Amino acid sequence: MLNADNIMRIRRFRLGDEPALFQVFHSAIHLIAARDYTPEQIEAWAPDAGWRRDRPLC
What we know:
The chain is mainly α. It contains 2 helices and no strands.
């Protein structure tokens, strides 16, 4: 998030950030790292099935 002076503000994780955080993680692997890994590695690392609310994060 940028403020009025175009300075990025970093904040601590909050409950409820999970879907957005997962989207960043998943897209970074599937879009950016895809050229460096096989499809099998990418699917193992960040499955397309994605994050589910009923699945623990750790």
